[in-house]
TrEMBL record:
Name of this protein: MFS transporter
Domain Major facilitator superfamily (MFS) profile per the UniProt entry, residue ranges: 20-461
Main location: membrane
Short name of any one Pfam family annotated for the protein: Sugar_tr
Alphabetical keyword list: Membrane, Transmembrane, Transmembrane helix, Transport
UniProt family annotation: Belongs to the major facilitator superfamily. Sugar transporter (TC 2.A.1.1) family.
Transmembrane regions: 20-45, 57-74, 86-104, 111-132, 144-166, 178-197, 275-294, 315-334, 340-363, 370-387, 407-430, 437-456
Organism: Labrys miyagiensis
Membrane topology, as annotated: Multi-pass membrane protein
Length: 485
């Protein structure tokens, strides 16, 4: 309530809160930018370093493997050293490996640098989510976390567009280096900006550092006119913040009876979702080129190779744009319809999109092309409306503060096992069993994702992080209900 008696559902966002949100959104942008631009760069990389199908798969999987390790190792460190130090460190790593990639002289170093980029992006999965959700009002948490996450889709479109623009301007094999170079200066700017944010008061309070937590809240809530005038923090119901169960704040606490259900909900559907999203996202240009007959296994010249890549990039840009449309719907609906409903509905929609694309093999000409594009467009829209957005959101909400970094990091890493496997196997399986069989397999995966989500559902929509700290004692299938802040 303001001094004049005006009542609001929650306090307006401050400049510091918006700064934190913007810098977190930038991290998600770089993830989409690098991972999806790799799809455009792959044919050029393959030609320059003269690599085969297996090495091709390793390149596609390298950054995803880095995300897997970074999410568990570096993301988990945010529970020990704090959200802000890891929020800064991940961008320092990103900039260093990005520069190394641009000047990479050979294939082994290429894999190492791509892995390093993934390491930084993996740390960002839990850290960016936590630093937003622990600093903003609960009533807008879904919108703002997913709003930042939406920049992954913006980055995906941007990466594909930059790839196309660079290829069109500089039609030569080395064009891939300029693609990655375009991200260096923006990444440095974001790195500098992250030094100026405040530490998470939730994390400080969970460690018993009440005075530092109060100071962090004061910096977080600076506004004109100042409200509240005085800030005093206390624990809820006389208990410490950040209950992690009988195992305390160790990795094993993720699997105790208090947190096991949350771990399954956060990890398994995300794993199933990544099987499809990353494989299709990285290899969309390749799949479209093959399916539309625009690609050849043995291009007759460099000119043919680049022409094929440009055409595939155009098709990828069209289908990828619907990732943005999907995430915009997710932002609008997450705090009203709810996370679980959107995730289940999204998984079913992904299966429908993949089924449409699979029907293309039964037709020819314009009908086949229409089915392929319609299927990919529907898949991209539904995955960002549902599982791609909601799995990320839920993973940062269902765990207590003391192990939130570990929980969200483990979920992201477990998901990336599916992404790495898919990225490595896709180019091999495309040749071995064909596009249609691959799509059928992913349809089954999407349906399974909907089933697991429903069986282990925990609804966090509108529930404050303080309320989520309390052990629920819920059994599988029961929704979590609590009053909104």
């Amino acid at each position: 309530m303001w001094a004049d008696g005006t009542q609001l559902p929650s306090a307006p966002m401050t400049g510091m809160q918006w700064l934190i949100w913007s810098l977190a959104a930038a991290g998600k942008f770089f993830e989409g930018f690098v991972v999806f631009m790799t799809g455009v760069a792959l044919p050029l990389l393959s030609n320059e370093f003269n690599i085969g199908a297996a090495e091709h798969g390793i390149i596609g999987a390298a950054s995803l493997a880095g995300i897997l390790v970074g999410a568990v190792w570096l993301g988990g460190l945010s529970d020990r050293f704090g959200r802000k130090p890891m929020f800064v460190a991940e961008m320092v790593l990103f900039c260093a490996f990005l520069v190394g990639l641009v000047f990479c002289p050979n294939y082994p170093l290429l894999v190492i640098f791509l892995f390093g980029l993934g390491l930084a992006l993996g740390c960002d999965y839990p850290t960016a989510h936590m630093i937003i959700s622990e600093s903003i009002p609960s009533t807008a948490r879904g919108k703002l976390v997913l709003g930042a996450f939406a920049f992954q889709a913006v980055g995906a479109l941007g990466g594909t567009a930059v790839g196309y623009a660079v290829l069109s301007t500089l039609p030569e094999i080395s064009a891939w280096r300029w693609m990655y170079a375009t991200a260096i200066i923006p990444a440095v700017i974001v790195t500098v900006g992250r030094f100026y944010i405040v530490e998470s008061a939730n994390w400080l309070a969970a460690r018993g550092e009440t005075k530092r937590a109060e100071e962090a809240v004061r910096r977080l809530l600076i506004r004109k006119p100042q409200y509240p005038a005085e800030i005093k923090l206390s624990t809820r119901d006389g208990q410490s913040i950040g209950h992690a169960g009988e195992d305390g704040g160790t990795w094993m606490s993720l699997f105790n009876k208090t947190n096991r259900r949350a771990t399954i909900l956060a990890s398994v559907p995300w794993f199933l979702q990544d099987l499809g999203t990353y494989g299709i996202g990285i290899f969309t240009p390749t799949i479209l080129a093959v399916a539309l007959g625009a690609n050849s296994d043995h291009p007759r010249s460099i000119v043919d190779l680049i022409a094929n890549d440009i055409m595939a990039a155009k098709g990828a840009a069209l289908t990828t744009s619907f990732l943005i449309v999907g995430i915009l719907f997710a932002v609008a609906l997450a705090d009203t319809v709810g996370r679980i409903a959107l995730q289940v509905f999204g998984f079913i929609g992904c299966a429908a999109g993949l089924f449409l694309a699979s029907l293309a093999s039964s037709f020819s000409g314009g009908t086949s092309t229409l089915l392929i594009f319609a299927g990919f467009i529907l898949f991209n829209f539904m995955t960002n409306l549902g599982p791609n957005a909601q799995t990320y959101l839920l993973a940062g909400e269902v765990f207590p503060t003391a192990i939130r970094g570990k929980g969200a990091g483990f979920a992201a890493a477990f998901a990336k096992i599916g992404a790495v496997a898919t990225a490595f196997l896709f180019p091999i399986l495309l040749v071995a069993i064909g596009t249609t069989a691959l799509l059928y397999g992913l349809i089954v995966v999407s349906i399974l994702g909907a089933i697991v989500t429903w069986l282990f559902r925990i609804e966090t929509t509108g529930v404050s992080l303080d309320q989520l700290e309390k052990p629920t004692g819920l059994t599988a299938g029961q929704p979590m209900l609590a009053p909104a802040e």
